[in-house]
Amino acid sequence: MFRFKELASLPPQTRRNVFRRVGYMLFFDSLIALLLFLSAGSADWPFAWVYVVLMALIQLCGAFFMPLEVLAERGSRKENTEAWDRTLTRLLLATFLSLYLVAGLDFRWRWTAGYGLAWHLVGVLLFLLGCGLEIWAMSVNRFFSTDVRMQFDRGHTVCSSGPYQYVRHPGYVGMILYYSVTPLLLGSLWALIPAGLVVILFVIRTALEDRTLRARLPGYQEYSAQVPYRLLPGIW
Length: 236
Fold this sequence. Notes:
Elements: H1 4-8, H2 12-40, H3 46-65, H4 68-75, H5 83-109, H6 117-140, H7 170-186, H8 192-216, H9 220-226
């Protein structure tokens, strides 16, 4: 059965954090679906269904393949999150949700003229690529958290394997990619506006997180010398 033995071996609080994270993911996926279809005023939106189903399947894959300690960390209540990250997280959440709201209104009022199926499929492929990159980063980095914080309570160390060999923040690369192409997948060019804001906020978060890790995480300065680029090899 689904990881029951592995779950049973965890301490009670860790197990609760895993379930809390899974519950949050289910809630957030449901919220996205509600926003899309309520703002669209219709459930007859094929590519919104494609998006919702893909999100559910990806979350399921993550639940199967992601280390449980990563799920537990992402589901835990954090007390030492960097103050600036609390503000950025709120802004990111509002911007994420506005993306789906704008896409739904665009579908309802037909602000974007339709384009060919091929462009939707390009959006699907790039969306899956971004999600795959994020899951890869989570699977190798046991300190992949929802918040920017020093996890010295968990023995925080630098991760330099997997995609971290190429850029220092591959998870953000994946997130930027799939949020950037979500409007293309859904068929809403107007949703590119909030998607662009999401990208800007992630770039800001990357810069601030990188500065924090350089200052506070032992070994990160040396890792930065070995892997000089934060998001884009050869550029930044």
